[in-house]
């Protein structure tokens, strides 16, 4: 999509989009499945090649650590098709280069993309922070809706079916709850907003 839109690079700054794009999760933030990171995706139109860099904390340990959940079968470097040191192997077409997260290094990398070719257009979203936004000259900066967010919004058949099943189950519980309240009110039982909310919550579990 980047090459078709004639952009030289796309800088991803939203944590949920990075987690979705690379299909990985983390625990850098309490009660949140995301990890502190940046990603820069470059496309070289002449060779139709690309370079993808992912900036994360503690990359050496994370790349080689064993998965800590039963669903995951591969170490992070295997999942990203990169070396245990985060470097792409020669000849690999699809590989994610993993770099230690240092905010200053990210802004320098964006500046390097800009300086590499004055005709390079760099795509950022409206949620981009000013540290990144400010190093991209206006003539080379393009701020548009996130293509990742648009892709996330397009649900596949399995996802659509799952949502449909969830709504059907929840609708059945809600109907049962409303029928219960109607009967209780007619019999004189007193309900409050709190007791109704707690009862509905327990029925939905």
UniProtKB/TrEMBL annotation:
Give start-end of the signal peptide.
none
Q: What is this protein called?
A: Uncharacterized protein
Under InterPro entries, the record lists: Creatin/AminoP/Spt16_N, Creatinase/aminopeptidase-like, X-Pro_aminopeptidase_P
Pfam families in UniProt: Creatinase_N_2
